[in-house]
Amino acid sequence: MRKLLAVTLGVLSAIGGFVDIGDLVAASQAGARFGMAHAWVLLVGVVGICAYAEMSGRIAAVSGRAVFDLVRERLGPRVALLNLVASWLVTVITLAAELGGVALALQLATGLSYLLWVPVAAAAVWLVLWRLRFELMERIFGLAGLALLVFAVALFALPTDWARLGHGALHVGSAGQGWSVYWFVAVALFASTVSPYEVFFFSSGGVEENWSTRDLAHARSNVLIGFPVGGFLALSLIAVAAVAYHPSGTSLDTLDQVARPVATALGGAGLAAVVLAFFAVTFGAALETGLSAAYAAAQYFGWQWGKRVSPREAARFHSVLLVSVLLGVLMLMTTVDPVRLTEYMLVLSAVVLPLTYLPILVVANDRGYLGDRVNGRWTNLLGALFLLLIVAASVAAIPLAIITRMGR
Amino acid sequence: MRLQLAKQLLDRQIVDADGRLVGRVDDIAFAVDADGHPYVDCLLTGQGALGQRIDGWIGRLLVAVADRFTDDPPVPPLRVPLAQVARLDSAVRLRCPASELPPSPVESWLRRHLVDRIPGSHRASG
Predict the structure, then answer these.
(1) Is A301–B47 a contact, with Cβ atoms under 8 angstroms apart?
(2) Could you give the domains of chain B?
(3) How far apart are CA A321 and CA A327, in angstroms?
(4) Which domain of life does the UniProt lineage start with (chain A) (predicted)?
(5) Fewer CB within 10 Å, N side or C side of chain B?
(6) How does strand B13-15 pair with strand B21-24?
């Protein structure tokens, strides 16, 4: 029974780690503009992130080392420093977008401008990181994030034409908006599904929780159940937006519009669930991105890191954490629209994806770290195919953003 | 002991006897014995040592940042005598606890000027 509970809780963390502001924005926009035509992107993304999260979990459990920890040994200090700077910047921009999401959820709940909520949200995120236990933190926000299921429920109350949804998912079309826009949205959705911070966080979390080879099965089941459930939640976001907005071809620019169909279908209770879900997934992701930014820096330089030691024993780690959160606040205080910031963040994430995923595949084949637990032939085949997609998305991201003027 | 320094030693994580993270092998100091044979004397760790190894403007920037966050720059690298190394696997494991080595100046500076001033900095949150 206790074991079952532990697995359930681990799965919750994985779900919480999967859905964030990127999914809320990218999935809803894809649904509103192209119906279900991007469902396959989610499927591919989930398969890929499962494969790579399993590898990084295995590396953490067997070698006791987190992913970024090994990047410098494999790439040398110069290339790894470039990797660090790029990953850290993108992670901090993601943190800013997540904080913006928290503030927008609070604006939905209270009616007060999100700009007032940004400092409050940032202070709360920092306080949780300073004080709350790691497992507790992951589980609370994972569980609350399940409120996102309300989108799947709403589909039954909305005038959903299931046959049309299914048809749309299987017959991919550009809905008269042009293929370059279709592919731009596909790249953004893909980047939101496989965000680099997810693997930093997953592997560093494994090290923090002292995983050993005995925890491998546990880690694997977390990934193989949690991420697909997260993918299902993202799919229901696409479907709701498709039902509510696709027929008229409205474009989605605010979180408000993402929530509205659920409020229409299920009333006040539905809206309350949506606000709770938005808050939980963005707050949870803000915690993860904040930690990931500090993990990356500490692991590159070899500093003491983590929540298991007191902050004064990991002073450099906690200083980077604090600076990252403050930078996130500064970015939002320029009054940049958090949804626009999320769109830019997804393009940049797509560009840096190979920097995270290539080293994982290389290390997962290194007997020096993994002994006989290196990748098997099928995992390598899957990993290599997925890496090709990642490189394609990375190369295409900026040209597509320019051609389509960020998908307008 | 036969060892490929660049592949198996350089850039590895250094871990003390209690599992605390000390730093990375940012550089290696050689010495020459009476017969004129060079041998590995110390492992060097610290942002300054790394900066000097990387060189160029990026290296100088790393050194400058480290010097900014200390009371009396320039920061010397922390020298770990080879005799303190217990074994070498995916990390360099030391015989002694980190408290027996000189502390990192940047870590101490940030602890004194920033982290210790925030309430609750003495308790691990786990």
Answers:
(1) yes
(2) 5-117 (2.30.30.240)
(3) 10
(4) Bacteria
(5) N
(6) antiparallel
| ipTM surpasses cut 0.90 | yes
The single-letter code of the amino acid at A66 is: A
Rounded Cα distance between A36 and A235, Å, is 9
Is residue B72 within 8 A of residue B14, CB to CB? The reply is no
Q: Which of B53, B110, B112 to mutate to test the interface with A (most CBs of A within 10 A)?
A: B110
In whole angstroms, what is the distance from residue A334 CA to residue A338 CA? 10
Establish how many alpha carbons lie within 13 A of residue A111's alpha carbon, considering only the half-sphere containing its beta carbon. Answer: 0
Task: Report how far residue A128's alpha carbon sits from residue A372's, in angstroms, rounded to the nearest whole number.
Answer: 39
Parallel, antiparallel, or unpaired for β B78-81 and B38-45?
Answer: antiparallel
Please name each of the domains of chain A with its CATH number. 2-403 (1.20.1740.10)
Please tell me the distance from the alpha carbon of residue B37 to that of residue B31, in angstroms, as a whole number: 8
Q: CA A177 to CA A34: how far, in whole Å?
A: 8
Nearest to A155 by CA among A229, A227, A281, A244: A244
Q: Which residues contact A166 (CB under 8 A, 6 or more apart)?
A: A36
CB pair distance less than 8 Å for A130 and B14: no
At A256-284, the pLDDT tens digits run 999 999 999 999 999 999 999 999 999 99
B115, A369: Cβ pair inside 8 Å?
Answer: no
